[in-house]
Structures are given as structure tokens and as C-alpha cells.
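Q&A log
Question type: sequence-to-structure
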Amino acid sequence: MLRRVFLFLILAGAAGAGIFWWLTKPAVVAQASLAPRTPNLANGITTFNAGGCSSCHAVPNQPDRLKLGGGLAMPSPFGTFYVPNISPDPTYGIGRWSEEDFVTAVLKGTSPDGQHHFPAFPYASYQHATVDDIRDLFAYLKTLPPVAGKPRDHDVPFPFNIRRNVGIWKWLFMDGKPFTADASHSASWNRGAYLVNSLGHCAECHSPRNFLGGIIDAQRFAGRIKGLVGALGNPDATPVGQLAEDFLTSSITGLSPARD
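Response status: OK
Response body:
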């Protein structure tokens, strides 16, 4: 009897390990799916600005927002993440990345060496962007100045530092679906919805998160006091939480509107 129980436990453990390995396998974008096209650098600039790439990736404490050497510290309940170098430097940045590598990283959260990126990189929102936008972004990034230097490694304790576990997080919180336009709304509304929910990744900072660091869908855009990227908090970005004129003031000036 004990022998049978022991054998069952071994088989169950092997089956569980196989299921875990299958569920957590890093996804990639196949090169064959990227048809030849001429990059649109103007759209690459638009995508760069819409995604706020320099907000995280520009070297801290210097004025040039196009020096994307990274290094910004992003504290979280799971450890401190340090933003990587995404300049075209061939040694420390993405200068040796292929287009497939970049599209896979942004849309799937998978690195060129086949590991999961931590979701401090907001690919849970970027997954809804179009492939062409990401390809144009990559083309534009390659025109920027290379920046030497590797930011320090993430300071993330066990078990959060096990990248394979991120596959479970992706399984729970990513649907892998591109943005779908709503025919009941105007083109400008759909453009705004696309930017907010993909490239702009607004929900990543402006939504409460659960204990696993996933966005609580029922409270999306409702602001948060303590979450994935720090404890200072971000304001309510829902229509109820912020008037249109206040939103425009904040978006254009970067300043919080005065309240009586």
C-alpha cells in the first residue's frame, strides 16, 4: 500500500511539474509573422511619446530625454527593479536585438534569451498594441544615441526573483488579445481607448492591485495608494474622479490641478 502511495505521489509530482513547465513557457513572436515593411519613423516617434518611454528609461538626473541608458529605481512590494538600458548600444542596450526580439519583449514580456521579463515592464498593457506600432517604435529607437553602461541588477528577493514563476502571473493577468475597436463609438474615442489601454499603459499606475501585483479589473483607473511601483500613490483617473479640464491640465503641464 505504501509503495503504491509513494508511486502515486511521484507520478502526481511529475505531472504537476509538467503542467507548471507548460503553463509558464515564455511566449515569443515568430519571425515569420513579421512581414517585410518599411518602418514609419514618424509613427515611431508618436509611439515613443505615447508610451512615455523616456519617463522610465532616460538616464536619471540629466536633461536629455533621448539618452535611454536606464537606471531608474522602481521600488515595489516585491523588491526594487532597475529600469534597463534600451538605447541602441550594442553591449549594454538593445543594439544587437532583432526586430523579433523587440516585438516579443514588448508584446509578450519575453527576453531575447527566452526568460520572462518582470511585469514592472508594463507589457500587460503593451500586449494590446499593434505589431506595426511596436515595429515602428523599434526603428525609431535605433536612431537614438547609444548610451554605454549597464544599470544595476534588480534587487528582488526569493521567491519573486524566480523568473519562471512570472509565467503563472502572465497566465493569470494577461489575455494576449489586441485592442478591438468599439463600433458604437467614434474614431477619436477608439484612438483614445487604444492609447490609454495599450501604449499609454495608464492603468498600470492608476489602478489598485491585488496581493499578486495584478490590476483589480473592477477598480481599473480608480487610483491607488500603495502598489507595484511605490507607496506614494496615484490619483483616481476615472471620469468621476477627475473633471475633463483637470485632466487636460494635468496631462499637458504635469501638475496636479488646484482644488478649493
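Response note: The chain has ten helices and two strands.
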